[in-house]
Amino acid sequence: MVSIKDIASECGVSIATVSKALNDHSDVSGSTKAMIRETAKKMGYLPNSQARALKTNRTYNLGVLFVERASSGLTHSHFAAVLNGFKNEAEANGYDITFINRSTGGNTMSYYEHCMFRGVDGVVVACVDDFEDDGVTELLHSKVPSVTIDYVSKGNPAVISDNAHGMRMIAEYVCKMGHKKIAYIYGDTSKVTSIRLESFRKTLENMGVEVNEDYIVQGKYHDPESTERLTKELVGLKDPPTCIIMPDDFSALGGLTALEKLGMSVPEDISIAGYDGITLARFLHPRLTTYQQDTERIGAEAARQLIAMIRKEIPGEPPTVTVNGCLIKGSSVKYIGE
Amino acid sequence: MVSIKDIASECGVSIATVSKALNDHSDVSGSTKAMIRETAKKMGYLPNSQARALKTNRTYNLGVLFVERASSGLTHSHFAAVLNGFKNEAEANGYDITFINRSTGGNTMSYYEHCMFRGVDGVVVACVDDFEDDGVTELLHSKVPSVTIDYVSKGNPAVISDNAHGMRMIAEYVCKMGHKKIAYIYGDTSKVTSIRLESFRKTLENMGVEVNEDYIVQGKYHDPESTERLTKELVGLKDPPTCIIMPDDFSALGGLTALEKLGMSVPEDISIAGYDGITLARFLHPRLTTYQQDTERIGAEAARQLIAMIRKEIPGEPPTVTVNGCLIKGSSVKYIGE
DNA sequence: CAAAGCGGCGAAAACGTTTGAAAAGGTGAC
DNA sequence: GTCACCTTTTCAAACGTTTTCGCCGCTTTG
Q1: Range of the domain at B219
Q2: Three-class SS of residue A185?
Q3: How many domains are contained in chain B?
Q4: Any strand C atom closer than 7 Å to A34 CB
Q5: How far is B331 from chain A (nearest CA, A)?
């Protein structure tokens, strides 16, 4: 590989001058700058990012940490979509991304250690459940610039989808469609869940719809099996609900499976609503009513915040930016009049 | 950060000894090795991967290149699943992964240049269409160890799903279900497509089913819109097919949408088969008949081959490993007798 | 005319490692 | 007591950058 040294001897200048010319420093004349750059290009010079990082302590690499119990990883379509937005924005700013995990090779290291080892300039962390995980809090409290998604950690910027708003949109819509017996299968215990749950309760109250505790059951995010089971239980009640709000779109599939097996059809026999607005929700029949999160923007915003943080462009307490989604009125919630 | 130097002065030995102790070289005594390692751990030492890479020319980073015209990136569920398998296997071997793109920061660089810049030890390349892209061939012909997925490039190992086998499984099954008028919407022109197409033709021939050229139309991979349009055209023929084989599962959704709009139901009015076996195919109603690729294994195998290549464990011509999938008999293909 | 200022450039140290060669220390053989 | 031979340790160079500081020569200023 051709290095800065080769260019220097080719041009008859010192390596310092070459470095400065390539980095557009002001203390090298325009003519030599042009000359050096041209021969650099001609010789096919590429900077060595390792050497540069060693010297500058900046790798232009961002870490991505995604933790969840099920470890579905990249096949988690909501996460993949957010990551895609993050990746695009990061790349547009000259950053590459690297996944952070705890098992590099034989010997395991913590998330924080992995970040330090790889020297990432910052890290985005998204967890579907375990934000209280020891490894995660260690990282969030460390000196590594971090941004969190759907979770607020003091001292770090956060990007959250407006869960209260989303749930309100869904619940209001369901109420307006005339439903009085509304069930909610909520996800694992987490901040996100509690916000949605509270919003669900408050919205029903505001709409003058009674909240039946038997209709509010705990499921899991991104787990069709548990939703399938719970859906069966709900429709098996003496006084079953007329509508079920699912933890998320993917889990909703389990609910649909349960209903199919029971010979019930949606929305004729029962109404269903999801959450997330994943691509496939558009293609279900009937099309799923859901709250579509702007995943691309969530990811992109996270990247912007993180990069701003790295550049120390954020003076005071880092912001919590909220990204709104929008209600997708599919056809899985039936109008049942007043 | 605590460096090797700090450990050296703490232990009263030279940095060379520390380095050798940590890397388990044979020329340092067991007792000092143990002592050094212990204090290293006590001091919270972490190796600096940049410095190491600078010296050794090994980054333990693998590049991932995914090229497609639609640039759906990580939201492409089949690719995401393959990548997930790749990632898991890579991480188990101590490699991290980095995405390769051509726009790092303001100034663009070729894929090859990006690989060199980041110093990846190797790269996996998956393209849904553009394998003949200039940037891709430059990379594949370069000195960067590469493995290709679903494409064979001389000199590099390749992992391919058995497209001929897959299409044969599907076509045979459809024939056995009594279909005589079988349409095939194939994807973009590519090696994969031509293999599937050939297998489709040969299988029908072997099964004694006439191949109707009007039923064989070109669509696009991963593009429900084009499939929707083509499905409409196919069912609009004077003598419409009784079964349509789709380019892939995701595109199949477009076909289902078209049929829904036309008031036709699957499989009563027409049968549908997909390809890929993405997760959502399991949850469609009726469950989609498809050929499920072992995405996890494809990715993992690619990682294994790449790492073997990097370690120069592959003596002769690099292998082309084939990963079989299996037919998923859903309920979207109806038995229509002899 | 001397001093100061400035634009352009180079010397050299430093970042944290790895690694081959050399040195030091010990042991046994002659 | 010398020599050879291990084993263990250190020296020092190297990897490719960035960056501080100083030098040189020229122009400006008082």
Answers
A1: 163-293
A2: strand
A3: 3
A4: no
A5: 13
